[in-house]
C-alpha cells in the first residue's frame, strides 16, 4: 500500500519537469518569433521610402498635413489613410523619422510589410485641399 502512495508523487514530478521543458521551449520560440518580426518590420533602409503609421482615429488628410509639415513627400496611402508611404525630401533620414514621431507618428516600418506597392486612392485634385 505504501508503494502506491509514493508512485503518485513521482508521476507529478515527471509531469512538472515536462511542463518546465515545454515552457522553456515555448518562451524560446516566442522570443525568436518576436525578434524575427521586429527585425523584418522595423528594418528600414536609408534613402528609401518608409511606411508611417498614424492613429486609426485621425483624419487621413490631417496625416497628409503632418507629413507635409515635416517636408516629406507622400507616395501612397493605405489602410484608409492610417498608414502613409512617404519619403524625405530635404532632411536626413534620422532627422525625418524624428520629425515624424514629433508630429504624431505611432510607428515607422518597412513599407513592404504594409503593402507598399500599388496605386493610391488619393488623386492629385485632393492634394489641393492640403
Could you state the order of secondary-structure elements as H and E?
Answer: HEHEEHEH
Strand coverage percent: 15-25%
Number of strands: 4
Helical percent range? 40-55%
Alpha carbon gyration radius: 25 Å
Q: What is the mean predicted local confidence, pLDDT?
A: 76
Shape: elongated
Q: What is the distance, rounded to the nearest whole angstrom, between the alpha carbons of the first and last residues?
A: 85 Å
| Helix/sheet category | alpha+beta
Largest sheet: 4 strands, antiparallel
Strand order of the main beta sheet, please?
2-3-1-4
Low-confidence sequence ranges: 116-126
Helix tally equals 4
Describe this protein's structure:
The structure is a single chain. This protein has helices at 2-41, 60-69, 93-102, 124-127; strands spanning 50-53, 72-78, 83-88, 107-109. It has 130 residues and is α+β, with helices and mostly antiparallel strands. Mean pLDDT is 76; it is low at 116-126.
Feature tags:
130 residues, alpha+beta, 15% strand
Quick overview:
The chain is of the alpha+beta class and about 130 residues long.
